From TrEMBL, chain B:
<keyword id="KW-0731">Sigma factor</keyword>
<protein>
    <recommendedName>
        <fullName>RNA polymerase sigma factor</fullName>
    </recommendedName>
</protein>
<dbReference type="InterPro" id="IPR014284">
    <property type="entry name" value="RNA_pol_sigma-70_dom"/>
</dbReference>
<keyword id="KW-0238">DNA-binding</keyword>
<keyword id="KW-0804">Transcription</keyword>
<dbReference type="Pfam" id="PF08281">
    <property type="entry name" value="Sigma70_r4_2"/>
</dbReference>
<dbReference type="InterPro" id="IPR000838">
    <property type="entry name" value="RNA_pol_sigma70_ECF_CS"/>
</dbReference>
<dbReference type="InterPro" id="IPR013324">
    <property type="entry name" value="RNA_pol_sigma_r3/r4-like"/>
</dbReference>
<dbReference type="InterPro" id="IPR013249">
    <property type="entry name" value="RNA_pol_sigma70_r4_t2"/>
</dbReference>
<dbReference type="GO" id="GO:0016987">
    <property type="term" value="F:sigma factor activity"/>
</dbReference>
<dbReference type="GO" id="GO:0003677">
    <property type="term" value="F:DNA binding"/>
</dbReference>
<dbReference type="InterPro" id="IPR036388">
    <property type="entry name" value="WH-like_DNA-bd_sf"/>
</dbReference>
<dbReference type="GO" id="GO:0006352">
    <property type="term" value="P:DNA-templated transcription initiation"/>
</dbReference>
<dbReference type="Pfam" id="PF04542">
    <property type="entry name" value="Sigma70_r2"/>
</dbReference>
<feature type="domain" description="RNA polymerase sigma factor 70 region 4 type 2">
    <location>
        <begin position="124"/>
        <end position="175"/>
    </location>
</feature>
<dbReference type="InterPro" id="IPR039425">
    <property type="entry name" value="RNA_pol_sigma-70-like"/>
</dbReference>
<dbReference type="InterPro" id="IPR007627">
    <property type="entry name" value="RNA_pol_sigma70_r2"/>
</dbReference>
Length: 79, 184
């Protein structure tokens, strides 16, 4: 397994989308590849941190709605 | 001369997620948080002439938002009765000294500290997201924070799955680099 494929599988693992066979191949690759080990470590940490932070964001529909309201207010404001 | 410029047309794209995250860690209700953020933008627009450019636009908006959050709590508190604090100390000798134990901080109760740290981490994540190119940030948010399926994102943004994974890869690398200094 080449490194770019290993990183791809690692990314998929973060979203629980990698198959078992892919994960096995990734782990074999990690045994001898230091760069990918580092990438996997940081990547997993990122997932953990985001989960921990319970960070939230607005969905697109809501943002659109807000934009509409604000645009309307801007127009009224400039009159 | 002011160092910072103000431009309400960009507010939603630049700050709505940050403000929303700030609010939701304090009011813990999505709908109320959305309303407060919207109110903040409208109030900001009205008092634009008061913006002196000493602080950044975001800091200025946050200061408005803070007042909105306080107002929100005032409103719901005036509906309820006033909170009552009662501490009773026992006089009889049998239970003497029990209150001491009650007053000691519970080492297992770390919720307040955790919440605080999570809020800070959330801010850091939003700061890093703000540094990403818009498309990367969009895809990353949808996939990681909102948890949409790959297929749905691909349809919505009109990209292929391999496209998506390339974007995710770049975004994750940049995010990990950005957060590394303080949080890893």
């Amino acid at each position: 397994m080449p490194c770019d494929e290993a990183n791809h599988v690692c990314n998929k693992t973060q979203y629980k989308e990698a198959t078992l066979w892919e994960k096995i191949k990734l782990n074999i690759h990690l045994i001898y590849c230091r760069a990918c080990r580092k990438y996997t470590k940081n990547n997993t940490k990122l997932t953990k941190k985001i989960k921990e932070s319970k960070v939230e964001c607005l969905d697109k529909k809501c943002k659109k709605h807000m934009k509409k309201n604000l645009q309307k207010a801007i127009r009224e404001h400039s009159i | 001369m002011s160092k910072h410029q103000i431009n309400p047309n960009k507010w939603i794209d630049l700050y709505s997620d940050y403000l929303f995250n700030y609010t939701i860690s304090r009011v813990s209700d999505r709908e109320i948080a959305q309303d407060l953020v919207q109110d903040t933008f409208l109030a900001g627009l009205k008092s634009m002439k008061n913006f002196k450019g000493e602080a950044s636009e975001r800091t200025w908006l946050i200061s408005i938002l803070k007042r909105k959050i306080i107002d929100h709590y005032r409103k719901i508190n005036s509906k309820k009765g006033k909170a009552e604090v009662r501490i009773s100390y026992n006089d009889d000798s049998e239970t003497e000294g029990d209150w001491l134990e009650e007053r000691v901080a519970d080492p297992y109760d770390k919720t307040a500290e955790d919440t605080l740290q999570n809020a800070e981490l959330g801010n850091a994540i939003h700061n890093c997201l703000g540094k990403l190119p818009e498309k990367q940030a969009d895809v990353f948010k949808m996939k990681t924070i909102q948890g949409f399926e790959t297929e749905i994102i691909c349809n919505e943004l009109n990209i292929t799955a391999s496209n998506l994974w390339v974007i995710i890869h770049r975004a994750r690398t940049a995010m990990a680099d950005c957060l590394k200094e303080n949080w890893f």
